[in-house]
Specification:
The chain is of the alpha+beta class. It has two helices and five strands. A three-stranded antiparallel β-sheet has the order 1-2-3, with no helix packed on it. A two-stranded antiparallel ribbon has the order 4-5.
């Protein structure tokens, strides 16, 4: 960030004292409840500034899919994904205010773990033990098993409901 003199996330701009983010069709005011379109480095820097850290993949998994009764199929339970649970399946081109879909909360009361935007973790993106790519696999994700990429969890507004899974 210092070397490249990055002052703010790529999709953010400041105009007339107001922060904006580049939406799909226009620049939009950036409410403080929309920390959207940030790199892993920016998300990590923000959490350090707040005296916190990004969750590991396992912590995210527990927060999103765990419950006192055991693992859930989705953060809200086992019901198929619907508009009331989050921003996914092309219901919006842009994210919405955090917490706008309380029906999608996890068992622990955490909002927006699926939909509204992908979530960074602190876990390095790597293959599971014993993974062997098939011949058609190169350039899919194996190219990112380099120790420099991190796991994303959740879903975005452009994630089809059929692709939502732990």
């Amino acid at each position: 960030v210092r070397k490249s003199r990055i002052l703010h996330p790529w999709f953010w701009s400041r105009r007339d004292g107001e922060w904006l983010w580049r939406g799909i069709f226009q620049d939009l005011p950036l409410p403080s409840s929309w920390p959207v379109f940030v790199s892993h480095a920016e998300a990590s820097a923000y959490t350090r500034w707040r005296g916190a850290r990004l969750p590991t993949e396992a912590e995210f998994q527990r927060a999103a899919y765990g419950s006192p009764e055991g693992e859930r199929r989705f953060p809200w339970g086992d019901a198929e994904p619907a508009r009331s649970e989050g921003v996914f399946d092309f219901t919006s081109w842009d994210p919405q205010r955090a917490g706008s879909h309380p029906a999608g909360r996890s068992a622990w009361g955490v909002d927006d773990l699926v939909g509204n935007g992908w979530e960074w973790t602190s876990s390095v993106f790597a293959p599971f033990p014993g993974f062997r790519p098939i011949p058609s696999y190169p350039e899919y994700s194996a190219d990112f098993f380099d120790g420099e990429h991190y796991v994303l969890k959740g879903a975005s507004p452009a994630t089809a409901r059929e692709l939502i899974r732990p």
